[in-house]
């Protein structure tokens, strides 16, 4: 193909739309610390996502890390190793021990049926990931968390706009983290949020992201700094106006991949989950080398040679990271290990041309 195609490409508003949005910041000189753009975006996102509570953060990772902090968790958190570094690091950076549970073969989310055997008297939380925008088994997970008195905190970084049974997915569990990174379906350049039901969390999250400061004389928590600035919030306000159109365009790209690759022996394509409204965030393909005749790594290399940068999200498993060497055994989660060694996420973004999708499929299928 001889063309540089990356795994994704940030959605952006028209230049003039963004300039109009930030113009007033030159009048006020108010650039951060929960200014007008921050407040406006928070209000608009609450309405769009249909959540009772939402706090913005500087990125998804700090949102999750600080959420775990205000939950005052101790001991162990049951989670999945088939995720981005952030999920595991947020747990560890809070002084908690991650206990890795295997994932489901069909949608790659945590296998709820394997959680209870991992619960000990030290377990304080379950931290599942709605990976690729696939929705976890939310009802089962709630049942387990309630039965054992555990907090249920979702990493919903991939899930902007996803609904389950007509409910915004960030409503499930005690709280959910969303990422608004440049690579996500909805972006604020860098950014993130925590969505929650319990109103008590609102103040805790508000204070912790601003050094724990209550007012000029009172500091009530050992907080940090994870505030979203006004330029990022303004980007979010603009992008939110177009996000439905962006998701609709992603759907067209996604469907073209499905059309071209469905039924090819040895390829496992994304699942369609019942009752789920998708956001078409990722297009993961799992390669069975025995049947397809080539490994994931071989296909990755062939695509790269044509300038197509598919990504091995999520390889290696977080439990195999060198920073955790000697602490975990990736073989304890055999399904996750197998998927991480055979999955490739193909380029997917709203303005990816259908001819390029065809070109990518031709390379995969040796028709180029
Ligand atoms: N939990 C989960 C499950 C996550 O997946 C993530 C983030 C988090 C938590 C943490 O949320 P944040 O703190 O990031 O808000 C990228 C993203 O940086 C990361 O946000 C994302 N997950 C992860 C899955 O993907 P890399 O290391 O692959 O990024 P990079 O720089 O290689 O970019 C990938 C492609 O995106 C580039 O090839 C081109 C495109 N791109 C990238 C940037 C930076 C753009 O089009 N515009 C850009 O500005 O991690």
Structure description:
The chain has 368 residues and is an alpha/beta fold. The protein has helices at 15-28, 36-49, 60-70, 85-93, 138-148, 200-208, 230-261, 289-292, 296-305, 334-340, 354-364; strands at residues 53-57, 76-79, 97-100, 123-127, 151-155, 163-164, 167-168, 175-179, 192-196, 213-215, 218-219, 267-268, 276-277, 283-287, 343-346. Helix 1 runs antiparallel to helix 7 and helix 2 (36-49) runs parallel beside helix 7 (230-261). The N and C termini lie close together (8 Å). Ligand T4K binds at residues 6-10, 59-61, 83-84, 86-87, 129, 155, 157-158, 179, 181-183, 192, 309, 313. Residues 6-10, 59-61, 83-84, 86-87, 129, 155, 157-158, 179, 181-183, 192, 309, 313 line the site of ligand T4K.
Summarize this structure as a short list of keywords or feature phrases.
368 residues; alpha/beta; 11 helices; 36% helix; globular
């Amino acid at each position: 193909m001889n063309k540089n195609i990356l795994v994704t490409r940030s959605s952006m508003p028209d230049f003039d739309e963004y300039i109009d949005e930030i113009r007033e910041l030159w009048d006020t000189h108010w650039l951060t610390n929960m200014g007008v753009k921050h407040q406006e975006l928070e209000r608009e996102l609450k309405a769009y996502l249909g959540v009772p509570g939402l706090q913005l953060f500087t990125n998804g990772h700090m949102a999750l890390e600080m959420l775990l902090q205000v939950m005052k968790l101790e001991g162990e958190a049951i989670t999945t190793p088939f995720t981005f570094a952030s999920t595991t690091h947020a747990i560890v950076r809070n002084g908690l021990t991650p206990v890795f549970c295997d994932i489901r073969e069909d949608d790659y989310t945590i296998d709820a049926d394997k959680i209870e055997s991992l619960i000990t008297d030290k377990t304080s939380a379950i931290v599942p990931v709605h990976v690729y925008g696939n929705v976890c088994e939310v009802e089962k997970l709630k049942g387990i968390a309630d039965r054992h008195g555990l907090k249920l905190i979702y990493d919903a970084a991939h899930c902007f706009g996803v609904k389950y049974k007509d409910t915004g997915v960030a409503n499930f569990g005690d709280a959910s983290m969303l990422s608004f990174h440049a690579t996500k379906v909805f972006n604020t350049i860098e950014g993130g949020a925590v969505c929650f039901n319990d109103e008590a969390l609102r103040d805790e999250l508000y204070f912790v992201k601003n050094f724990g400061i209550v007012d000029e004389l009172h500091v009530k928590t050992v907080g940090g700094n994870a505030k979203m600035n006004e330029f990022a919030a303004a980007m979010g306000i603009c992008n939110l106006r177009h996000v439905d159109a962006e998701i609709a365009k992603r759907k067209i790209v996604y469907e073209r991949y499905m059309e071209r690759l469905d039924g090819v022996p040895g390829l496992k394509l994304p699942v369609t989950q019942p009752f789920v409204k998708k956001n078409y965030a990722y297009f993961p393909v799992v390669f069975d080398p025995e049947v397809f005749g080539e490994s994931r790594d071989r296909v990755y290399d062939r695509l790269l040679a044509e300038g197509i940068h598919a990504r091995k999200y999520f390889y290696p498993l977080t439990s195999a990271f060198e920073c955790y060497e000697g602490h975990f055994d990736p073989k304890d989660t055999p399904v996750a290990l197998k998927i991480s060694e055979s999955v490739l996420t193909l380029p997917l973004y709203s303005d990816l041309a259908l001819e390029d999708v065809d070109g990518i499929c031709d390379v995969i299928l040796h028709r180029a």
